[in-house]
Write a sequence for this structure.
């Protein structure tokens, strides 16, 4: 219900980008799919930065950014641009 309100606000007050932090954390798989469909529908007019731990949401991303702690407690930012082929390969590997 809250996400429906958020996307209604996006329609009423458009912005070039949106930052969403763990908004889908409490959703089940079916509702995560619905959430991702809404994000895809809005992605032609805005960019989304989504902070998440949900694997399904990460699988739908074009680019992933993460933070890793290396030796000596030094953190570094890691980024990876995903293509549709890579996402399909990852999905097939997990299914096997």
């Amino acid at each position: 219900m809250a996400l429906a309100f958020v996307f209604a606000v996006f329609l009423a007050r458009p912005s070039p980008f949106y930052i969403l932090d763990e908004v889908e954390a409490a959703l089940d798989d079916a509702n995560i799919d619905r959430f991702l469909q809404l994000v895809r529908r809005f992605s032609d007019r805005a960019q989304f930065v989504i902070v998440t731990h949900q694997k399904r949401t990460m699988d739908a991303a074009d680019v992933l950014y993460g933070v890793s702690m290396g030796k000596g407690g030094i953190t570094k930012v890691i980024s990876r641009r995903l293509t549709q082929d890579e996402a399909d390969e990852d999905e097939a590997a997990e299914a096997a």
In short: The chain has two domains: 1-61, 62-96.
